[in-house]
Write a structure and sequence with these properties.
single chain, mainly alpha, globular
């Protein structure tokens, strides 16, 4: 199980910083599109553009940040990214208060937050590998995973209630303050971090921008896991807006039932993440990634059979619960394998490449899903996504020797963090 095991004071502060930021983002989930509609009277095209263009631009901006993060101390990078997000998000309530809020500002904020998130995650992943023992990586990743799902379950309902009582920019303030508190938590970490060595620190070479992808595509195990994750994550996320149209517009579900259908299953994330260490110890990393990687792909097709009424609501909750339990068990095992099999001097670029690719896959598959739904119907598009995802296990690595213990030079040099 993931709980009850001390990983040191440094990890405690890192986890606390992650938790406060995750819950702040949960409370502020969907805040920018909501402000665009309620405050700026944005059109559907503008709202869609805000959800797609901002993160896409942020991913492009993040491309050169991978090498930049790689050759710097990771803790200051995390603090800078948190403070950047705090400052840019706080411009929204300030502009709203003085009557100067504009749609372009929301686009800029969305792009900056997306880029800073990618850089922060790259730095935190690299920092984590040096912060805890190799044997504790799975425990640490499982704790982050459980925090993610609990924040998704609790945050949006609290955010919706706050908006109803205090107004549309309330959750934006809460989200901004969570980044400030996260920065303070990371500042409290006292573990000494060595500066990464680099032969030429004066500039970023063009080849360094692609080193992350080069590692992912040439490593026998990571290549299949990477391609599988792009397909699975992209198809699952592509069905979310399709399901919203199906449930709210075509089947007549009230908004509170729609929110319940997605919030309640997130509690299943606590189940999967807490089982991760136990099942890996019993069955091995290879079997879990193969079995659960396959299992998480079989449920999506069930959303195509949703009907009106209580039975339909129960169907959505059951399918989403099965997907989330599978993902929350799979994700920390995948994250641990990725860190174990990535050299220390390439972690930030690898995680940056992974994040950028994931964002691109979601954007492309969501756009294709929307086009298919417009030509046919949302239910048909969900059926197609559900059938395509069934082929995703073919991308998973089949050979068990791919999951052998990593070479010694990939293991963190520091056995245990000072406390």
């Amino acid at each position: 199980m993931a709980g009850g095991r001390s990983l040191g004071r440094g990890f405690g502060w890192l986890w606390a910083a992650y938790a406060v930021s995750a819950y702040g983002s949960g409370v502020g989930f969907g805040a920018l599109p909501l402000i665009a509609v309620l405050v700026l009277d944005a059109s559907p095209a503008q709202v869609s553009g805000l959800s797609a263009v901002g993160p896409a631009v942020g991913a492009l901006v993040a491309l050169p940040l991978g090498p930049w993060v790689e050759f710097r101390r990771k803790r200051p990078v995390m603090i800078v990214m948190d403070l950047t997000r705090f400052a840019v998000v706080m411009t929204i309530p300030v502009a709203y208060a003085v009557g100067r809020l504009a749609f372009v500002q929301l686009l800029v904020v969305s792009a900056v937050v997306a880029a800073a998130k990618i850089a922060f995650n790259a730095a935190s992943g690299a920092y984590l590998k040096g912060l805890v023992r190799p044997d504790d990586l799975l425990v640490a990743n499982a704790r982050f995973e459980s925090t993610t799902w609990s924040s998704i379950a609790v945050g949006p309902p609290l955010g919706g209630a706050a908006i109803g009582v205090f107004g549309p920019v309330t959750t934006v303030v809460a989200d901004a303050l969570s980044y400030l508190l996260s920065a303070l938590g990371i500042t409290a970490i006292r573990d000494r971090e060595e500066r990464p060595r680099r032969g030429d620190r004066s500039r970023i070479r063009a080849g360094e921008l692609l080193d992350g992808w080069r590692h992912l595509l040439t490593h026998r195990g990571l290549r299949g896991l990477y391609l599988n994750n792009l397909l699975v994550g992209g198809l699952i996320m592509a069905t979310e807006p399709l399901l919203a149209v199906l449930l709210l517009r075509q089947l007549g579900f009230p908004p509170w039932q729609y929110g319940l259908a997605f919030a309640a299953p997130c509690l299943g994330g606590l189940v999967g993440s807490r089982l991760a260490r136990r099942v890996v110890a019993r069955y091995g990393q290879h079997r879990i990634l193969r079995a659960v990687g396959t299992l998480r792909a079989v449920w999506l097709i069930g959303l195509a059979f949703v009907q009106p009424g209580v039975a339909g609501l129960a169907t959505v909750i059951a399918v989403e619960l099965a997907i989330i339990i599978s993902m929350s068990l799979y994700n920390p095992v995948l994250a641990t394998y990725r860190l174990e099999h990535t050299p220390r001097d390439r972690i930030a670029r690898t995680l940056t490449a992974w994040s950028i690719s994931s964002s691109a896959a979601i954007a492309v598959l969501s756009a294709l899903g929307g086009l298919l739904a417009a030509v046919t119907s949302p239910r048909t598009a969900i059926v197609v996504a559900g059938l395509l995802i069934l082929a995703s296990p073919l991308l998973l690595p089949h050979r068990e020797d791919t999951f052998r213990a990593p070479d010694r030079e990939l293991v963190p040099a520091r056995a245990h963090p000072p406390v």
